[in-house]
Structures are given as C-alpha cells and as structure tokens.
Design a protein that fits this description.
about 260 residues, alpha/beta, four-stranded antiparallel beta sheet, about 25% strand, globular, binds adenosine-5'-diphosphate, binds magnesium ion
C-alpha cells in the first residue's frame, strides 16, 4: 500500500528581487509504501523542507498533487506528524503536558493523556522528568521529549525535517536508535530529511538524492542492508563506506567549491 505519493509536484515562490515566480522544486514524483522509511538528501536550498511542508499540508503545491494516507493533502491532518529541527516545546508546559498536547487537542481525557505521555517518556528515557519544564532539560532531552510528543498522537506517517541536526554526535546516535526501533516496531511510514549521509543510510530503506535548486530527484538508492531496526549495528557494516562514497560523488562533495550540504 502506498502511503505517501507526490505526483509530478512543483512549487514556486515569488522571487523578492524580480517579483516573478521562481521554481524551488520541480517534477517531483515519489511513492513511499506503508512501513517504509525514506530519506531525502540534497544540497542546502534544494527544496527538501518545501517538500515536507507540502506533505504536511502547510504549503500547497504550485503544480501536481500530494497524497498521504489515502487522501489528497489540502490541509494538515491527524494521521501525519511533522517534526522539525527545533523542538518547539512550549516553555510554560511541563514535559508531560507538552507530550500530551496533541492528545489534548484531539479531546482525549486527562487520565488517558497522562498514561500515554508517561509510557512514551519512559520509552524515550525521560522517566523522572515528567514535571520538569523544557528549560530544565538538555538539548538532547528536549529533542527526545519532542519525539515523544510526535509519537503520542500515534501518527501513521511521520515527516521529519533534520530532527537530530542540532545534537552532538553521540546523543544523535542514541536518539536514532530509539526512533528506528519505534518506526520499525510500529510499522510507521517516514520521510526523513537529513544532511548526515551515514544517518540516512543507517535509518532508511531507501534514499532519494536531490539536485540543486530547482530541486528534483536525481537518484534513488535502495539500502539493501539488514538491521533497519538497529542503526547502531548497521553503522558498523562494511557496506556503509562504499554507500557513503557513492553519495559523496552524487553530491559532488569535495569536487566543487560550492557543493554545500545543509
Ligand atoms: P532545503 O530544506 O533543501 O534547504 P528549502 O525547501 O528550505 O530548502 O528551500 C528551497 C528554496 O525555496 C530556497 O531557495 C528557499 O529560499 C525557498 N523558499 C522556501 N520557503 C520559502 C517561502 N516560504 N518563501 C519564499 N521562498 C522560499
Ligand atoms: Mg530545510
């Protein structure tokens, strides 16, 4: 079953200098099956976030259509969770209340919200921090709380825009492990943006590589490796190096001065 589909999608923004529309992404067609984890990799400004914004219903495509969870996306829907690089926790709510926010909006009663939030906080290694406020937590802990909040509404589809990019290397690997296990166990579908090539390889079934602006998909790489539920171990496989090399070549890393990932 296809769970995320882009049919020949393009998106233009008005260029501030010329006042004319200018393409950010063009000719995007992709299809992601239920339970699949796919990473988008490409140079800074190639339109990765723009694609996710269209998947979440925050931006409308200029041309083409986007379908998620069986329906054309015209507005944000509950089956789809969107997670950004910044944790965006509410400073005035406790961690538990932040995690329960989506459930509160959905009208779930208080005791059930508390139960779900606490179960997820344990899973995300935040037991004991339920009553703390975001400012009392480290960056890694806040990001874990944001993951718990995203999972609390039990979305079938997760759109993740560089969720770990602000974290140190070790914290990142631990969070990747937690996320990968949850995605795998709950058979969630995810479209994941990263500029970390090994992160993409470690977490995904497939990688989609994009060109510079106007971004389009230039290559699909199927990650035919075991251990998608265990990225810490997958990282140790000998195939990782050659795959990373192939991506570096595609992205011209080290070949052109201006080839910057972000
Ligand atoms: P990426 O996430 O790959 O770095 P983005 O999707 O954020 O790239 O941006 C792609 C291009 O579209 C960039 O040149 C950016 O400036 C432009 N862009 C993105 N969002 C908007 C917007 N709301 N208005 C105008 N231009 C935008
Ligand atoms: Mg971006």
């Amino acid at each position: 079953m296809v769970e995320i589909e882009f049919r020949d999608v393009g998106k233009s923004f008005i260029d501030k200098q010329t006042g004319e529309p200018r393409a950010a992404v063009t000719n995007i067609s992709l299809s992601i099956a239920k339970g699949e984890v796919v990473s988008l990799i490409g140079p800074s400004g190639c339109g990765k976030s723009t694609l996710l914004n269209m998947g979440s219903g925050l931006y409308a495509p200029t041309s083409g259509k986007v379908f998620v969870a069986g329906q054309e996306v015209t507005k944000p829907v509950r089956e789809v969770a969107f997670m950004l690089q910044k944790d965006l926790l509410m400073q005035w709510r406790t961690i538990e209340d932040n995690v329960a926010l989506g459930l509160e909006i959905a009208g779930v009663d208080k005791s059930e919200r508390k139960r779900v939030a606490n179960e997820l906080l344990v899973k995300c290694h935040l037991r004991g921090f339920e009553k703390h406020y975001p400012y009392q937590l480290s960056g890694g802990m806040r990001q874990r709380a944001a993951i718990a909040r995203t999972l609390a509404v039990d979305p079938q589809v997760m759109l993740l825009d560089e969720p770990f990019s602000a974290l140190d290397a070790q914290t990142k690997m631990i969070l990747q492990q937690d996320l990968a296990k949850m995605l795998y166990e709950k058979k969630k579908t995810a479209l994941f943006i990263t500029h970390d090539l090994v992160e993409g390889i470690a977490l995904s079934d497939r990688l989609l590589v994009m060109s510079e602006r106007p971004g389009t998909i230039i290559e699909e790489i199927v990650i035919d490796l075991p251990l998608r539920d265990n990225p810490l171990e997958r990282r140790k496989l000998p195939e990782i190096g050659p795959l990373q090399g192939r991506l570096m070549d595609l992205l011209k890393i080290g070949k052109e001065e201006d080839a910057v990932l972000h």
